[in-house]
């Protein structure tokens, strides 16, 4: 939340002074630094550090990338990536909640990111936050009306990321719905098989009971004669 606020304020408030912009930049780096410390601590506590680095190479790239080229967009990507990877490790977070949060986060940060790089472009047509949000929504849903489009290289890179993210999220939602239906069908099949087996067992018990009644009746008739 602190990172989102610090990232959004200088973009939305174009009249923000140097002091406020500097304070927001410091907050961004502090939040990123917290995740960097988290990675270093987990690396130090890992029994096999080489295997830890190999298994968490994406975390390492997200931590090192802003140091190589300290751009605000790189800090945005690294922070979102680290938050997402840590959130996926929490078993109590449901898939639906994660997807909804990812959609909202991508829309918000995608809009702010494209607005920050396109607003000052001479050929750009994304000038306001409303235009940026509309563009992000149409891009994520892969509709692409074409009324707004990025003109800078960085803006087009953001567009590619939103497109791929939208397709991935749509695939996750579709797979989740399909898995739910399959699980329901499997549950119904299991219940039906259980009922069939119970009926078969009951039928066999009735057959044995009839045979036992018939045997007892025959023995009683023999005793009478």
UniProtKB/TrEMBL annotation:
Report the transmembrane regions from the record.
Answer: 95-117, 158-183
Kindly give the Pfam families that the UniProt entry links to this protein: Ion_trans_2 (PF07885)
Q: Where is the Potassium channel domain?
A: 108-181
The answer to whether the entry has keyword Transmembrane is yes
Q: Which locations, inside or outside the cell, does it occupy?
A: Membrane
- A single GO BP: monoatomic ion transmembrane transport
Entry keywords, A to Z: Ion channel, Ion transport, Membrane, Transmembrane, Transmembrane helix, Transport
- Highest taxon, organism lineage: Bacteria
- What kind of membrane protein is this, topologically? Multi-pass membrane protein
Alphabetical list of PANTHER family matching this protein: POTASSIUM VOLTAGE-GATED CHANNEL PROTEIN SHAB, VOLTAGE-GATED POTASSIUM CHANNEL
By what name is this protein known? Answer: Potassium channel family protein
At the highest ranks, the source species' classification is: Bacteria, Bacillati, Actinomycetota, Actinomycetes, Kitasatosporales
């Amino acid at each position: 939340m602190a990172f989102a606020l610090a990232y959004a304020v200088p973009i939305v408030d174009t009249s923000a002074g140097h002091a406020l912009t500097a304070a927001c930049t410091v907050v961004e780096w502090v939040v990123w630094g917290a995740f960097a410390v988290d990675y270093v601590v987990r690396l130090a506590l890992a029994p096999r550090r080489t295997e830890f680095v190999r298994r968490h190479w994406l975390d390492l790239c997200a931590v090192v990338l802003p140091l190589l080229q300290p751009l605000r967009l790189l800090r945005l990507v690294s922070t979102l990536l680290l938050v997402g990877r840590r959130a996926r490790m929490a078993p109590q977070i449901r898939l639906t909640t994660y997807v909804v949060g990812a959609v909202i986060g991508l829309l918000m940060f995608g809009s702010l990111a494209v607005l920050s790089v396109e607003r000052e472009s001479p050929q750009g047509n994304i000038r306001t936050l409303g235009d940026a949000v509309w563009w992000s929504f149409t891009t994520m849903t892969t509709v692409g009306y074409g009324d707004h489009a990025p003109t800078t290289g960085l803006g087009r890179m953001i567009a590619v990321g939103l497109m791929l993210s939208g397709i991935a999220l749509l695939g996750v939602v579709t797979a989740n719905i399909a898995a739910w239906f399959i699980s329901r069908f499997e549950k119904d099949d299991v219940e039906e098989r259980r009922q069939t087996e119970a009926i078969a067992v009951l039928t066999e018990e009735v057959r044995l009971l009839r045979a036992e009644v018939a045997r007892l009746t025959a023995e009683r008739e023999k005793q009478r004669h």
